[in-house]
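Long-time lurker. I teach an intro course on protein structure, and each term I like to show students one example going from raw sequence to a predicted 3D structure in token notation. This year I'd like something fresh instead of my usual example. Would anyone be willing to generate the tokens for the chain below so I can use it in lecture? Attribution to the forum is fine with me.
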Amino acid sequence: MSQARNARALRGHIASLETMTRFVLATLALASGVYTYLGVRTLLDGSATMVFFAAIIYSAAVSVGIYGFWTYMIRFLPEMREASSRAWMLVMMGVGSVMIIAMSSWLNAAALAGSAAVEQHLAVTLEGYTGDLEQANSNAISALSLLPDIQRAAERFSRLAEDERNSGALTGTTGSGSVVQLLTQMAAQMRELETTIAGSRETVRVLFEEGQTHLATMRGLVSAPGAIAPRSDQFAQESVALAGVIASLQRTSIAPSVSRAAADLSAGFIAPIADGRTTDLAGRQDVVMATVRESVSAQSKALSDAAAEILAEPKVVERRYVPINSAEAVLRYARDFIPSWAGAISIDLLPAALVGIMAVVYGAMRRGEDTETDLDRLTAGDMMRALDIQDAIAARHRAAAALAESDAHPAAPEAHPEPVPDTPEPRPTERPAVAENVTPLAFSERKRTDP
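-- Reply from a regular --
Happy to contribute to a lecture. Here you go:
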């Protein structure tokens, strides 16, 4: 009995909440349409009027579609009693939800987090350009690490030449001869290479500072307030200038020049003819020049190997900034905007929770109605109509009994006998006893049609 009362109460609540349900669905559909309008407007090109009307039409279609779809679901799915029918309805609800996400939810996310997603794209691009500039600068100045070795080699050749000239440290004979000339020549070549490397340092510094200036401007554009579209355009201009600076830094690297100069030290070595006045001195000069040749070859190999290591470092891959709109940005960086995606999808799929609630309520209501008997389904109106019919039948029985009695005992004829009324007598204050062959429950088999 309590379950039956609970079923009747649930049916009453469903009827009372019907207006509220429609209001909730309409509000959610309208909200989704508004954010869809904001999102789709960023995807359209053309005049302002055309973009406005196209976005309005699309968002209106989305709102109507969402409202209609969830109205059908909330009306039909809870009424499904068979498991197969309910399963097919759930499948259709899943298909419709996917369609709603495809046509509306991602645009809602673009409206909610589109600007932030584009800023994220700018920040990621800026990080990439920062790494490219640092790598290009590192490659450009890596040849400067060879400068101390070159300076030491130049000083050593210069010192040996001075010692040979002043004290004959190598040949045992003082003066400027072939050995001094060769050592001076090697020292001069090392000095030229040193000057070349030192000169590139200033160029690299200027280019790196210029790149840092572009990066600072781009960093300001990422975090600046205001509309994202003009900032994205200016960011693109700065990225082009920065890409030029990075390319210049790669071309400024002195490592290839060092490698060629190191190879020339050995391959282009030309020893002068010994100019000693005696055969013994000339022989000693030849020995010393051979030793110098071996030293130059060793120095050349060391510089070539060091330059090869620098050249083997990975080159900076040319990077191009590609502007994207807010809808593309929220898809590319979806993991960074999960709350916005959750809100956008919830606006569209929240009615699914209402459908589930209605399904649960209808299930509980049907279980309660299954326990009802015919007596539980009788309403007050049914009882009143049964009593009225009972009174009418009792009145006819009384009239029939009176007629039978008058036929058995006829009375004196009257001048104008009154006919027996065909209508039942007025209902007395106290109801008569129910006839044995009549029961008000005879009408209880009628199926209840309204709650």
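Some talking points for your students: Confidence is low (pLDDT under 50) at residues 420-451. The chain has 14 helices and no strands.
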